[in-house]
Amino acid sequence: MYLEKTVDNPCLAETAYRHAVQLEPNRGSYHFNLGNALLGQHLLADAAAAFQRALELEPHNADAMNNLAWTHLERGDQLDEAVALCRRAATIHPARRAYYLDTLGRLLLKQGKPGEARTTFEQALAATTNHQLALRESIRSQLAVIPDHRVRDNPR
């Protein structure tokens, strides 16, 4: 299929999915994939609009929720909405919960909530599978830079 050849080329993917959206404007997956192509080019406003449209068409698309939240994270806007999207995604699609919690942890850091972020990253790490090694390492690197205020030195 032609669209499969666009995976490594976000510009080509954008063109293909814009065409697909014109042909079938009510197919949420096309808007979702267009959003991914736009996000890959750092066209954040357009990516957010595409993910939003995907969610209008497929309100339970947890990946679209997560990617819209990530887009808000990158833009530094609507962080409260993004947090809510991640929390909802984690309940809708438990198999991908680790990814959604990773995004949530990053959002909480951006909001200046390191304690909540640490807890969320710990939950994300616990939710990873043996097939998610890159995600696991990414989460560990996030945890490494967040101070753990729960650990106290024993007084002498």
User: Over the alpha carbons, how many angstroms does the gyration radius reach?
Assistant: 17 Å
How many helices in DSSP terms? Answer: 8
In whole angstroms, the N-to-C terminal distance is 68 Å
The low-confidence parts are 1-5, 152-156
> How much strand?
under 5%
Largest sheet: none
Annotated CATH homologous superfamily of the largest domain: Tetratricopeptide repeat domain
Shape: elongated
Domain module count: 2
Fraction of helical residues: 55-70%
CATH class of the largest domain: Mainly Alpha
Which structural category do the helix and sheet elements fall into? Answer: mainly alpha
Strands, count: 0
Fold-level CATH name of the largest domain: Serine Threonine Protein Phosphatase 5, Tetratricopeptide repeat
pLDDT averaged over residues? 92
CATH architecture of the largest domain: Alpha Horseshoe
| Strand/helix succession | HHHHHHHH
